[in-house]
Amino acid sequence: MNAGILGMGRYLPDKVVTNADLEKIMDTSDEWIRTRTGIEERRIADDHVDTSDMAYEAASQAIKEAGISGEDIDLILVATVTPDQPFPSVACMIQEKLGAMRAAAMDISAACAGFMYAMVTAQQFINNGVYKHVLIVGVEKLSKITDWEDRNTAVLFGDGAGAAVMGPVSDGRGILSFDLGADGTGGKHLYQKEKIVMNGREVFKFAVRQMGESCINVLNKAGLKKEDVDFLIPHQANIRIMESARERLELPVEKMSKTVHKYGNNSAASIPIAMIEEKEAGRIKDDDLLVMVGFGGGLTWGAIALRWGR
Ligand code: UT7
């Protein structure tokens, strides 16, 4: 069995916070944020909307698009570092509302690489025939752990959710190869101590090196070449980091998806949200080769080469 994507969904809060809004509450400038990160605005969830609410919205859309019902789901995996609480998991919290009472459920903590970890975990159960439908969600309410006094981090993040139903797809389609990894020695560069703490320069250096390496790794593992890539879907952390991955793959600008300017860094949600936007714009076609790549706190990383289509 080859594991691929059967349906997708996303949720973004309505509230837009622009760089100009941030200029009013901290010592920063639209110019600095734009040139250093590519971010122009981000979405911030209302106080009463928590991670599980956003996860549910994205998940129900994905289930609908997949043409299945909650009862068909065998496993729910939610990638997040901002669960409503340590337990029960967000996966368990959304299970009942989705009517997925047959499903096993758990959260995955791999920060911004979380959606890659969730996809690869789902793939194992689908490939060996144990499960048919795995719901995966990447969701973050980063605004609740953002230190609004720290301009080094506060300008970067946004809230949102992206989901996919994964299941068996036709031969030659779905996940062709993956590359997952972690380096706990770098954990000190990006972590949560009540609020987010980050050594931006160290994370930047790691990200530039690792994003490119991981993309090349998945191509090599799948026996593919850079020229075969139709779309690069990088974690939307910083346009300069994303550009470095694109250059490593020698892809033209229009072959890299970009949402960072309007949503900022949505951590585990950024890759599925970017993928959905390309799909809705009609830019991803059946049999296109997509390379997805993410990195984040842990440190963690993950890339996937996926042939689009059911
Ligand atoms: O999902 C993974 C999450 N993390 C990341 O992706 C972060 C990776 N790192 C980055 O994206 C970049 O390192 C940043 C965008 C965070 C920072 O960009 P940088 O080019 O590495 O800047 P820097 O940290 O070297 O700071 C340059 C200057 C500093 O001033 P001095 O010391 O040179 O006077 C900072 O204090 O920019 C200052 N600065 C700011 N100025 C205005 C830092 N943040 C801001 C700000 N507004 N928001």
What structural class results from the helix and strand content? alpha/beta
Bound small-molecule species: oxa(dethia)-CoA
What ranges have pLDDT less than 50 throughout 5 or more consecutive residues? none
Query: Number of helix segments?
Result: 10
Quickly name the level 1 CATH class of the largest domain: Alpha Beta
Q: Main sheet: which strands, in order across?
A: 1-7-6-4-5
For the termini, the CA-CA separation is 12 Å
Number of domains: 2
Biggest sheet overview: 5 strands, mixed
Assembly state here? single chain
What proportion of the residues is helical, as a percent range?
25-40%
| CATH fold call of the largest domain | Peroxisomal Thiolase, Chain A, domain 1
Task: Give the CATH architecture of the largest domain.
Answer: 3-Layer(aba) Sandwich
Relevant CATH superfamily of the largest domain: Thiolase/Chalcone synthase
The tally of beta strands, per DSSP, is 13
- Residue-averaged pLDDT, rounded? 97
